[in-house]
Structures are given as C-alpha cells and as structure tokens.
C-alpha cells in the first residue's frame, strides 16, 4: 500500500512539475516583485490555458491525496 | 477609508478577485503545515521547537513563515523562484542574448520568465536535496536526538525530494494564479502571508517573555518604523518633461508636460535580500564544516564570532555596506539613463533647460546617483535596526523580529503595491479610493 502511494506520488509530482512549466508564465519577474513596476495584463486566458488549469488541478489533488495518505500510514505504523 | 473598503467589496468584479486571492493564500498556508511524506510530524515538532529558540535560520525562516523547519511539502517556499529571478536578472548584464530578450519587450520578457521558471525547478531539486541531506545527517536540527526522517532508505528520500520539488512548482503556479486573476503580485503576496503569519506568535513571545510595558514600547516603535518606511517608499523626485507639439494630419499630438518619477528607494527590498543571502554563506560553510567530534577550529571560531553573530559590529557594518553597494548596483541594472534619454528624444520630449541626448542622460544619471544615496542609507538603517534590539526578542533571530528590518520592508512594499492595484481597479468604477 505504501509503495503504491509512493509511486503514485512520484508520478504525480513529475506530472505536476511538467504541467506547471507548460503554463504561460505570468510571474512578471523580479521587477514587479516587492513593489515597483506596473501591471496591465488585461488579456483573458485562452482555451488551452483553461484546460491546462483543470488538468493541473486534477493532478494536484491526486498529489495532495497521496501526500496525506503516506503521512497517515506513517502515523499509524 | 472604511467606505472605500465597503465599495471595494460591493463591486462584484473586485470582490471575486479579492476572495480568490484570499482562497489561494489559505491553500498556501495549509500546504506549509503539511509535512512531507516520510517525515515524522511528531519528531519534527519537537526538534523545531528546540532550534527555533536558537534562531540560526533567520532569513530562510522569515521567507518560509516556519515552513522549512517543519519540513513541509512547501518547505522551500518561494526561495527558489526568488533566487532564480535574481540570477536571470543578473545574467541580463552578462549574457548578450538575455539583454537582447529584455529589450524586445513583451515577447522577450515572456521568454525570460519562462527561463526563470525552468531555473526555479532546477534550483528546487538542488535545494530540496540539500535540505533532505541536512535533515538526514542531523545537521538541520543540531542537538536534537530523535530522527526526523525515520525511514532512511534511498527510495523514500528520493520521494521526499521529488515531492518538495513538485511543491515548489505548485507554489509557483499559485503565485501566478494570484497575479493573473487576483489582486497584487502573487509571489510577493505569498511571502507577505508567511511573514504576517509569524507576526502574532512573535509578538506573543515578547509579551510573555518581557512583560506588557516592553510589548507596548515595541508596538509603538514598530508603528513608527512602519510609518517612516511608508513615508520614504512613497518619496520621489519628479523631473519635469515637456513634450513638443506635433501635427499629424489634422490632429494635434503631444504638447503635454509630464514628469519622470525617480523614487528615493528605486531598488525596493531587493538589495536587502541580496545582502542577507550573501551573509548567509559563511554561516552555511561553518555549519557544513562542523566536525562530529565537536572541536572548533580557529577559522570557524573567527567566522562564528565576527560574521555569524548578528550583534557583532563587524557583521552589522558589513551588512550595511553590502546593502548600500547592492542598492547602487541594482538601480544601475534596472534604470539606464542612456536608454531613458534616448526614448525621450525619440518621442519629442525634453527636460526644460537641458538639451536632449547625452546631456539629458548625464543629468538623469547625476540626479539618480544623488537621490539613491539617502535611499541606500535608509535601506541599510532599517535593515540593521533589529540587530540592535537582539535581546528584546529573547535571543531569537534578529531578522525575524517582526517590527523592523527586512520583514517590515517587505510587508510595507507588498502592502502598498497591493493597495495601489485595488485602488486602480476601484478607479474604473468610481473616483474615490483609499489613497488621497
């Protein structure tokens, strides 16, 4: 059971990293960090982004569930 | 003021954005308390309580809001992203291709952001490996007998590293979601929430340890610092710029007079972050070189007394000097007088009394150099302040002290920025906002 959860964790982690990297970065970089710089990004998100959001959310929830699962197993053991 | 808050919440569009931001912050805080798989929650709690009182991980703990010492899935927090953006920012000076991308505008900027994201993941792998290695060798929590990670097989360690990396990626996404659909800059809001979360327990520590009078004094003092920080942050020199009138077809363009704002503190908190990450290095070296037998060599004692000890005058003056240096450095990186002067000339603008072109750029450089001096001294002073009050926080990390130093600089900077953004959103509906 634990091994299964751990493998799920690895797979979902790698998927999560890849999915997040696929998103169009909107960080704005350092200049807009900590004040300064102005932002006026009024463009809406595209269909691709929306589906990517959903997929990321899905993988993210699997990730959270397996993290909690491993944690619980450790607590019981 | 209060009516502005009400109207901000009454605007459906803005209300949704604010609630969305709050929701993401809640998710982030929840994740910060969730222990990574394979980490024994009970043992970590025990060890963290011991280490926290010795206060060595001041800066990192400040950014993480205590997530690192709990070895949570979000243990690395935004640190990799900040480091990555600093590196990319600095590389624009060194690598010609990066500089070209930066000049390209929107598209080039997007590419740079993408590079920053890749670098973030790479750094996250490195840092999580480092953290896990330190934890396994018992160096993350010195003098703590119980094992933090019970199962020390390679496989389970790899699982932790990968999970922390994915956590960092998730944080990055959360931050971008806030930037995109909420209010304010996501990354800095996440840091803000981490610092704010420490505010109450840290204040409680003072109240319990030192009594009510000291607590009241600290509060008044903190408010005074915050007020003065706001005052300086808002300060700017307005250089008048006159645009020539132009006729294009039958329409008249230009002829307006505006100003070029030069902030007193153009660099923000970034110099402080640079300086403290640099000063963190000797501490790290000394820690990694710690011998298991417990004997202290000569050079380690030297580093410990002069560089690691935050109340030593060598440490304080070095910190101050580094901040002043990095302020000038960062302003030079971000604001290029030649470019500005060129741009102005292109669009038919000039500063009254000064010829466009080279004289303008010289004038801008002159004004900028002079206005940055008080800015840098102010930054250094505020950042160094808490080091003088070390005993007040009960020997805890000075930079953790919530009413002075880096914490206040970051909180005020982020707060002002966020309020300004809400304000501009509010302006689209009605004219009265928070700031008058």
Automatic annotation (TrEMBL), chain B:
It is found in: Cell membrane; Membrane. Gene3D superfamilies: SecY subunit domain (1.10.3370.10). Its main location: membrane. One of its GO terms (biological process) is intracellular protein transmembrane transport. SUPFAM superfamilies: Preprotein translocase SecY subunit. The chain crosses the membrane at residues 67-94, 115-134, 154-175, 182-200, 212-232, 253-281, 316-336, 367-389, 401-419. InterPro entries: SecY, SecY/SEC61-alpha, SecY_CS, SecY_dom_sf. One of its GO terms (cellular component) is plasma membrane. Keywords: Cell membrane, Membrane, Protein transport, Translocation, Transmembrane, Transmembrane helix, Transport. It comes from the Bacteria. It is a multi-pass membrane protein. Component of the Sec protein translocase complex. Heterotrimer consisting of SecY, SecE and SecG subunits. The heterotrimers can form oligomers, although 1 heterotrimer is thought to be able to translocate proteins. Interacts with the ribosome. Interacts with SecDF, and other proteins may be involved. Interacts with SecA. Belongs to the SecY/SEC61-alpha family. The central subunit of the protein translocation channel SecYEG. Consists of two halves formed by TMs 1-5 and 6-10. These two domains form a lateral gate at the front which open onto the bilayer between TMs 2 and 7, and are clamped together by SecE at the back. The channel is closed by both a pore ring composed of hydrophobic SecY resides and a short helix (helix 2A) on the extracellular side of the membrane which forms a plug. The plug probably moves laterally to allow the channel to open. The ring and the pore may move independently. This is Protein translocase subunit SecY. The lineage of its organism: Bacteria, Bacillati, Actinomycetota, Actinomycetes, Pseudonocardiales.
